[in-house]
Amino acid sequence: QIAFDVPPQIINDRTMVPMRAIFEALDCQVNWIGEHQLIMASGGDKIISMMIGKVNMPIQNIVTGESEIVVLDSPPIIVDDRTLVPVRAISEALGADVEWIAESRTVVITAD
C-alpha cells in the first residue's frame, strides 16, 4: 500500500496520484525540471518524459533504442503544489498490470 502526502484524485475519469510517490514505488528515479514543468523518470530499461498540461508521454527503451508516444486521457497537473500523474499510464508504461476496483475506489498495481 502506498501512502501519499496528497490524496489521489479522479480527473477526467482517471486516477491521478503524486508523481514522486508512484514513480519511487515502481523503483524509478524521478526528476522535476521546474523551469520547463517537465517530469523525467527512469526505471529498468525505460525513460519516461511528461510535461504539465501535455497529453503526449514519450517513452524510450534505452536498451533497444525503441521509442513510443502514449497519448494520455488526462495530462499531468499541479494541485496544491503537488504534481499529479495518471497512475494507470505510468504503471503500464513500466510494465505493471493495473486493476481498478470500483466498489472500493482502489487501484491495484502488480509489478514484477
Strand elements, count:
11
Q: Give, in order, the helices and strands.
A: EEHEEEEEEEHEE
Return Rg in Å. 13 Å
Calculate the terminal CA-CA distance, rounded to whole Å: 16 Å
Helix percentage range: 10-25%
**In percent, how much strand structure appears in the residues?**
over 45%
Low-confidence stretches: none
SSE class: mainly beta
Quaternary organisation? single chain
Largest sheet: 5 strands, antiparallel
Mean pLDDT: 92
Strand order of the largest sheet: 3-4-5-6-7
Features of this protein?
four-stranded antiparallel sheet, mainly beta, 112 residues, five-stranded antiparallel sheet
In short:
This protein has two helices and eleven strands; from the N terminus they run ββαβββββββαββ. It is mainly beta and about 110 residues long.
Set down the secondary structure blueprint.
Layout (H helix, E strand, L loop, with lengths): L8 E3 L2 E5 H7 L3 E5 L4 E6 L2 E6 L4 E6 L5 E5 L5 E3 L2 E5 H7 L3 E5 L4 E5 L2
